[in-house]
Amino acid sequence: MPLVKSAPRVLENVSMLPYNTFGIDVSARYFVEINHLQEYIELVQTGNYAHVKHLFLGGGSNLLLTKDIEALVVKIQMDGIEVVDEDADHIWVKAGAGVVWHDFVCYAVDHHWAGIENMSLIPGTVGAAPMQNIGAYGVEIKDTFDHLDALNLTTMQLERFDTARCAFGYRESYFKHEGKGQYLITAVCFRLNKQVEPQTSYGAIQSVLAEKGIVNPGINDVANAVIEIRQSKLPDPKEIGNSGSFFKNPTLSAEAAAELIKGYPNIPHYPVEGSSMIKFPAGWLIEQAGWKGYRSGDAGVHAKQALVLVNYGHAKGNEIQMLSEQIKKSILEKFGVVLETEVNIL
Predict the structure, then answer these.
(1) pLDDT in tens, 198-213
(2) Domains of the chain in sequence order
(3) Which of 140, 245, 319, 324 is catalytic?
(4) Catalytic-labelled residue, pool 117, 140, 319, 342
(5) Any catalytic annotation for residue 70?
(6) What pLDDT sits at residue 276?
(7) Which listed residue (42, 61, 171, 319) is catalytic?
């Protein structure tokens, strides 16, 4: 076994309040910040924390904490952005897992590299992004993803994952299923476009651009439009605790979708690319069921976007979880549709 140089300092009984966007105040039994992969390897080599689970944490923006964490919380801080290759049409850019996702988007936009501008202002880190194949306004991670590097937690060796190995789906990946808890993502590489072909057909992007008199938008215009839309609809976690979209948009078979549309002719719906499935907006279902703006104590449903559950101050995680279960039951009874949570509940 290699000689341990200097394992990072591990803290005990640390409040998680600053480390989750829902603003839930629970305690982590152990807590450590990792700035370089070697620090984590050296920590493991000490063997001091082999008796507890290791919970990897990015931006804490897709997490609902319902109790104290009897584990070692490993806060991933690995940063750095570098160009690793390019040709006439594309540029390959690698970012450390701890880089803030929106900062990475801004970096790409500033350099006129296209492909991820529609995902502006999505909370979280680069390392967490491929885990659930984040997406917004017609674009997903898989569209520009090239590969990622991840530490195999059994062998402690780095492995490379290409698109096929990641098994991306709608808010899904290998790392949420077969590979769950088996890897630590350390860096992600994207193939971005030098030729700009803005995607403006989804949501309100076109109308926002039209209001500004922008006819031939660049990626900066699209990014700004997306930011404006998101800020108008979604609460700032610094002001109201939340983790963005709490539920996935449900997808139904063509037959089940036809039945739902028959009962609710005005329901919005979209075909799922590459399949016969039909996607329905969970926010619409929740709003139609009367939950938009609902509040019980400090746990509630946002007044402007029913897909977002919020903590108005001192809600406990299990109170928000209970509210989510009530909503799921309501949607099943009214529409016959099963809602799945997008947020990880611990």
Answers:
(1) 888 877 888 898 888 8
(2) 11-76 (3.30.43.10), 81-193 (3.30.465.10), 241-345 (3.90.78.10)
(3) 245
(4) 342
(5) no
(6) 85
(7) 171
